[in-house]
Amino acid sequence: MMRRVTSVALGILAAGACAVGPSTRATAPATRPLLPTDSLSSPAARGFLDSLAAARAAERSDSTSALWRVKPLALDSTSDRSWLALLDDPVLLTLVESAIAGNTDLAMAVARVKEYRALLGVARGDLFPQIGAGGFASKNQSVFGTFPAQNFDVVRVTADLAWELDFWGRLRRQTQAARFDLLSREEDQRATVVTLVSDVITAYLELRELDQQLAISEQTLESRRATLALSRRRFAEGVISELDVRQFESEAAAPAARVADFARQRGEKEHQLSVLLGRTPGPIPRGRPLAEAVQAVAVPDSIPGELLLRRPDVRRAERELSAALARVGLALGNRLPRIAITGQYGRQRGDFHDLFGISGEIYLLQLGMTVPLFTGGRLLNQQRAANARVDQARARYDHSVLTAFQEAADALAGLGLTRDQLVAQDAQVQALQRALVLAQRRYENGVSSYLEVLDAQRGLYIAQLLLVQTERQYLVSTVRLYKAVGGGWDNRLPR
Fold it and tell me: What CA dihedral angle connects 264, 265, 267 and 269, to 10 degrees?
């Protein structure tokens, strides 16, 4: 009898090798390379910016010429250290590694992946026979008609079997959906890593910007303090008026206020970076200045469309679509008959002493089927809801692809235009530095008043601050581009 039931079960499993429902493969949309676009409407403006870049490259040999290089962005640019290698800063690399090891948001993402890995094991467990053991002892009294009451004891120990044969693939679809859920959470973890690395780099670049702006302000303050001391001596000698002294005091107060403001912002930025690293607020080590990092960056000439399909958010949306398709098969399988093997084997006697004697063996092995006949439309509407969720997931997938192309195009265009801004700002600083030298010479020769020197100092101070800010923006635009293509650290996910 047992052999016959087993043969029937194996035949049913062979017949049900294919799972019901649609294919879980998500069709990727057609892609094309992204090329940089020039948003400048005036050819004259473009020609002037190009001439500035050429002039700076001629004056500075190979240093500024790096700002004008272009290079292809290859498909393997998402390797471990691609975007960090661009900045070539060992201190920054150490900070990123510390953040990956200690960041609390990433720790939550890792724990979430572990949860879904366990849920996959739960779903997979339904594919296998469920075997358990049971035992009970009871004291009974029964009455049959007018016969005297019958008293008897029962002691039973059994091994129990329950196995649903996955004839329609319902349980396999359930397992597939759980596996795609796990893959989605892994993509969430990758997205968290990419965002974390981007946030650490951006905060670090902002910290270096504040360092340099603070240094520029302190140098300017020291220069103007010396000028103020000189003006007070000249006022005491009757050479200049009090109005000139007050103007010098005003000029010295401006960088003093900026020194205090930059120092406050720098402290807050260190605290922000410490939290990203998973530490209590404290000092942050420094690496290369912004100007050196800028020279290592080159603008990509294009972005392959296939690269954008590897973004964590795009792959997560793809996995979610596959999970929704698998659950359509699960909902369809719920409407079909369920076939299961149940069995029991054990011993039963009237007391414990004779439980494992010669007689007392009991067993049960049966093959059964349940068919849903009427559920009030519940199963049908579950399938309709699963189909609707597929439509939603497909729309989210398409939207994520469009968003990836938009963000990459914005980042590519922004990087090129920020480069133009940087070249122009650098040219302004060079011109104002030369203008200050000439103004000082004119003042020393008695050709002009010291107000001309002050105007040159004021213009140079503002231009230097803007140059440092633009250098930071240019590097942040590079980070934004590599974040837009989902680059970096995919192979170093913590577990």
Answer: 170
